[in-house]
Design brief:
This protein is an alpha/beta fold. The chain has a single domain, classed as NAD(P)-binding Rossmann-like Domain (Rossmann fold, 3-Layer(aba) Sandwich). It has a seven-stranded parallel sheet, with helices on both faces. Helix 3 runs parallel beside helix 4 and helix 4 runs parallel beside helix 5. The longest helix has 29 residues. The chain is globular and about 50 Å long. The structure holds NADPH dihydro-nicotinamide-adenine-dinucleotide phosphate and 2-hydroxyethylsulfonic acid. NADPH dihydro-nicotinamide-adenine-dinucleotide phosphate (NDP) binds next to helix 1 and helix 6.
């Protein structure tokens, strides 16, 4: 295949979907993952019809190690030459203090945001090492740099992503593999809807009174990061809405 191959986890919605859309328009062939099979199938149809792009879809739950391994090993050999791995799939589940938050939510966040990212990387990075080439982009968060009350485990999971990213960069540097992290502030996607278990009113409240980032803003940033010349790596990029100055400081006009 002449075109570069990018694998994007969590491509059924939000940042992952918009990144897939932009990369398809920019000549990448795509491997797209997520649990919602119908969305993956629709996206594949749309992209292959509208863009000069081939799409493989892999439908699995990133928390399940054996399913990750099975899905990746099912790829045709030529699709294993992955140039860019975008570890994007992730979520916040609930918002509550350590003394009363739901422990199942903690398991979900740690299994998805930390262990899922590791399973993906453990499977894909050996193919990159073999080719002595590749780029891994981890989607961290402002919550990987700062903390906020009631978000201890989500923040902890994203701090883990930040630490893992730094160590991975050192480990993979001798093999010519770039490792980057992108840390967004508030982006309006399905994120808050998922955090508040489908409560649309609560989710909308998060973005009320200011203009949050949108998924396209992050997609454009990812495209910038993965298209730098061979000798340039963006280690860590923090991107915030103009009216958000920290994890907790917003200029809201309510
Ligand atoms: P969305 O909820 O819109 O999208 C999340 C994506 O992750 C979906 O495609 C979902 O696919 C996938 N996903 C979630 N859990 C699993 C799972 N167990 N197995 C496989 N795929 C899964 O959220 P965003 O686009 O906002 O989030 C993308 C990333 O950006 C996350 O890592 C998030 O932490 C991070 N982020 C988000 C910010 C925001 O304010 N929105 C800010 C900073 C970082 P499916 O449900 O089909 O499985
Ligand atoms: C998502 C942004 O501020 O809700 O990572 O943690 S925040």
């Amino acid at each position: 295949m002449n075109q570069k191959i990018a694998l994007i986890t969590g491509a059924t919605a939000g940042i992952g979907f918009e990144t897939a859309n932009l990369l398809a328009q920019n000549g990448y062939n795509l491997i797209l993952t997520g649990r919602r099979k119908e969305r993956l199938e629709t996206v594949k149809k749309q992209f292959e019809l509208n863009y000069d792009c081939k799409v493989q879809i892999l439908n699995f739950d990133i928390r399940k190690r054996k399913d990750v391994e099975k899905a990746l090993s099912s790829l045709p050999e030529e699709w294993k030459a992955i140039d860019v791995l975008i570890n994007n799939a992730g979520l916040a589940a609930g918002l509550g203090p350590v003394n009363s938050a739901d422990v199942d939510d903690w398991e979900n966040m740690i299994d998805t945001n930390v262990k899922g990212l590791l399973y993906m990387t453990r499977n894909v990075s050996p193919w990159m090492v073999e080719r002595q080439s590749g780029h891994i982009v981890n989607i961290s968060s402002i919550a990987g740099k700062e903390v906020y009350p009631n978000g201890s485990v989500y923040c902890g999971s994203k701090h883990a992503v930040a630490a893992i990213t730094k160590a991975m960069r050192i480990e993979l540097m001798p093999s010519g593999i770039k490792v980057s992290s992108i840390a967004p502030g508030a982006v309006e996607t399905e994120f808050s809807l998922v955090r508040f278990r489908g409560d649309e009113e609560k989710a909308a409240q998060v973005y009320k009174g200011f203009t949050p980032l949108n998924a396209k803003d992050i997609a454009e940033t990812i495209l910038f990061v993965i298209t730098r010349p061979a000798h340039v790596n963006i280690d860590d990029l923090l991107i915030m809405p103009t009216n958000q100055a920290s994890a907790r400081d917003f200029n809201k006009k309510l």
